[in-house]
Write a structure and sequence with these properties.
Number of helices: 9
CATH architecture of the largest domain: Up-down Bundle
CATH superfamily of the largest domain: GntR ligand-binding domain-like
Low-confidence stretches: none
Number of strands: 4
Order of helices and strands: EHEHHEEHHHHHH
Number of domains: 2
CATH class of the largest domain: Mainly Alpha
Strand content: under 5%
Length: 227
C-alpha cells in the first residue's frame, strides 16, 4: 500500500505565487493540496520542485513544511523530499473518535445557521461527487467531498472549531485516495444525501447520525486495508 512513487509536481494544480506573505501562501496552498487528496500516500514530492512550481525559493517552502510536519500532515522522507506520514491502527482509531465528536458538533451548529445559498452549494457539490463517482474520477470526487463537508462545518460559525477540523482532515484526507476501489465513494454519497436531507429539514439529530456514519464508513475500509 505504501509503495513509493515520485509525484511529478507539474501535474499538481499549483500556481506561481506573488512575493507578499510567501510563507503563509505556500502553507495555504500546500494545505489545500493535502486536503483535496492531491498528495496521496506513497507519493514523494521534492521540495525543490515545489519551490520551482510556486516560483519561490526553498525557504518559504521549508518553513511551511515545518508547520505541516508539526501538524502530522506531512513527513520529511529525506532532506529533499516530503510525503504523507504512515497511518497505523491506533492513530486511525484516535482520528475517528475525535472526528466523530468534533465534526458532528459542527454539523449540529450548522443545522441552525446554514442559509439557502449554502444548501444550494451543498446540492451542487453532491452532484459533482455523484458524477465523479460514476466517472471514476478520484481527484474530482475528493475535491467535491472536501468542499461539501467544509460548507457544512463553516456554517457552524466557529473559526476555532473549523481550525480543529481542518487539522484533523490534514491528517486523514490523503488516505481517502485509497477508498475508491472499495465502493466507499458510492456509500459515502448516500450519507451525503442523508446529510443534505437533514440540513433541509433542520434535523440536528439526523444530521449528526449521517456525519458519524460517513466517518465510520471510511474508517471501516481503511481498517481493513491496514490489516
Amino acid at each position: 500500500m505504501m509503495e513509493k512513487l515520485v509525484q511529478q509536481v507539474s501535474e499538481l494544480p499549483v500556481a506561481r505565487l506573488p512575493r507578499d506573505t510567501l510563507q503563509e501562501r505556500v502553507f495555504r496552498q500546500l494545505s489545500d493540496l493535502i486536503l483535496d487528496g492531491e498528495i496521496a500516500p506513497g507519493q514523494l514530492v521534492k521540495i525543490q520542485a515545489l519551490a520551482e512550481a510556486f516560483g519561490v525559493s526553498t525557504m518559504p517552502v521549508r518553513e511551511a513544511l515545518k508547520r505541516l510536519t508539526a501538524a502530522k500532515a506531512l513527513t520529511v522522507v529525506s532532506g529533499r523530499s516530503i510525503g504523507i506520514p504512515p497511518l497505523n491502527a491506533d492513530r486511525l482509531e484516535d482520528l475517528r473518535r475525535v472526528r466523530i465528536e468534533i465534526e458532528s458538533l459542527a454539523a449540529e451548529w450548522a443545522a441552525s445557521n446554514i442559509d439557502e445559498d449554502g444548501i444550494s452549494e451543498l446540492t451542487d457539490q453532491l452532484s459533482r461527487m455523484e458524477s465523479a463517482t460514476a466517472a471514476g474520477d478520484v481527484k474530482g470526487y475528493l475535491r467535491a467531498n472536501r468542499a461539501f463537508h467544509f460548507i457544512v462545518y463553516a456554517a457552524a460559525g466557529s473559526d476555532s472549531l473549523l481550525s480543529i477540523i481542518e487539522n484533523l482532515w490534514l491528517q486523514i484526507s490523503p488516505y481517502f485516495n485509497l477508498l475508491h476501489g472499495s465502493g466507499n465513494y458510492s456509500a459515502s454519497n448516500e450519507q451525503h444525501e442523508a446529510m443534505l436531507t437533514a440540513i433541509r429539514a433542520r434535523d440536528k439529530s439526523a444530521l449528526k447520525t449521517a456525519v458519524r456514519a460517513d466517518i465510520d464508513g471510511a474508517y471501516d475500509v481503511l481498517t481493513r486495508l491496514l490489516d
